[in-house]
């Protein structure tokens, strides 16, 4: 079919970004709110100077594509996105009841529990003969148990802690190599009656996030860059091994 003769096509885009591991059969899943999605092309230009006459100029030129990059600003710091950005793995830990978790307490110090956001906390000495008072001898915090200076618990006291924790997610950073993913963009063109703009990048090698901001005056974000690699499974005349763009 001959290409439609369209002239008016300004683009102001928004939409959803999906990912899945490259080469797998997992579902393409939404990664959340993305404030920027850009593809960039790095071009290698070879020029031959015209020596056949005075004044020079270009006698021949060859343009080759060196690489195609992708840049994302991800606004949802869910476990899957954080794991991808930190070359890590993500998993869920099922809630449970913990009994007699051993620790050593110090005044003015935090006891970092094995699991976050403890509830139903009981703190005793190692022998179990003394039960300490919550709010006086210790404070329950999401990150653990804090021992205030006025606590009856002496420095270097061995304690045991009972508590309950709910199901939570954990990311172990820097445990895997940089991920390869398939990326899909389901966008709409707000400058063209909301018509769809769809992009598929078949094989993308993601880099690590530039930073992971945890304290600040604005929403945290993950700035991730990657490179679009050739997908050898895409074959046939006129079929791109890199990118496909579909517009309505």
Describe the structure.
With 248 residues, the chain is mostly beta strands. The chain has two domains: 13-90 and 172-247, Elongation Factor Tu (Ef-tu), domain 3; 95-166, no CATH class. The protein has one helix spanning 79-85, and strands at residues 13-21, 29-30, 34-49, 58-74, 89-93, 96-105, 109-112, 119-125, 139-141, 144-147, 157-165, 168-172, 180-189, 195-206, 222-228, 243-247.
Which features does this protein show?
Elongation Factor Tu (Ef-tu), domain 3; three-stranded antiparallel β-sheet; mainly beta; 1 helix; elongated; eight-stranded antiparallel β-sheet; 2 domains
Determine the N-to-C terminus distance: 15 Å
Instruction: Identify the overall geometry.
Output: elongated
Q: What's the Cα radius of gyration?
A: 28 Å
User: Would you identify the regions where 5 or more consecutive residues have pLDDT less than 50?
Assistant: none
- The CATH class of the largest domain, by name, is Mainly Beta
Q: How would a crystallographer describe the biggest sheet?
A: 8 strands, antiparallel
Name the quaternary structure: single chain
Q: What is the CATH topology classification name of the largest domain?
A: Elongation Factor Tu (Ef-tu), domain 3
> How many domains is the backbone divided into?
2
What integer is the average pLDDT?
Answer: 95
The secondary-structure class comes to mainly beta
> Which series of helices and strands comes N to C?
EEEEHEEEEEEEEEEEE
Strand content: over 45%
Compute the number of strand runs: 16
| Helix share bin | under 10%
CATH architecture of the largest domain: Beta Barrel
Count up the helices.
Answer: 1
């Amino acid at each position: 079919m001959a290409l439609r003769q369209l002239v008016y096509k300004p683009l102001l885009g928004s939409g959803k970004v999906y990912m899945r591991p490259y080469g797998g059969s997992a579902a393409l899943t939404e990664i959340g709110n993305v404030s920027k999605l850009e593809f960039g092309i790095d071009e290698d230009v070879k020029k031959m100077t015209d020596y056949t006459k005075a004044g020079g100029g270009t006698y021949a030129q060859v343009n080759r594509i060196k690489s195609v990059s992708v840049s994302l600003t991800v606004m949802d710091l869910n476990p899957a996105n954080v794991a991808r950005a930190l070359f890590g793995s993500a998993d869920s830990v099922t809630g449970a009841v913990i009994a007699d978790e051993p620790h050593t307490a110090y005044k003015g110090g935090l006891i970092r529990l094995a699991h976050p956001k403890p509830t139903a906390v009981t703190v005793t000495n190692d022998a179990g003969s003394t039960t300490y008072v919550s709010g006086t001898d210790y404070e329950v915090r999401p990150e653990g148990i804090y021992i205030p200076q006025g606590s009856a618990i002496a420095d270097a006291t061995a304690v045991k802690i009972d508590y309950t924790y709910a199901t939570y997610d954990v990311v172990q950073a820097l445990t895997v190599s940089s991920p390869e993913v398939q990326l899909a963009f389901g966008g709409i063109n707000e400058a063209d009656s909301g018509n769809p703009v769809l992009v598929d990048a078949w094989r993308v090698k993601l880099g690590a996030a530039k930073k992971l901001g945890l304290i600040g005056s604005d929403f945290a974000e993950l700035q991730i860059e990657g490179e679009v690699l050739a997908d050898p499974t895409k074959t046939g005349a006129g079929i791109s091994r890199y990118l496909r763009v579909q517009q309505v």
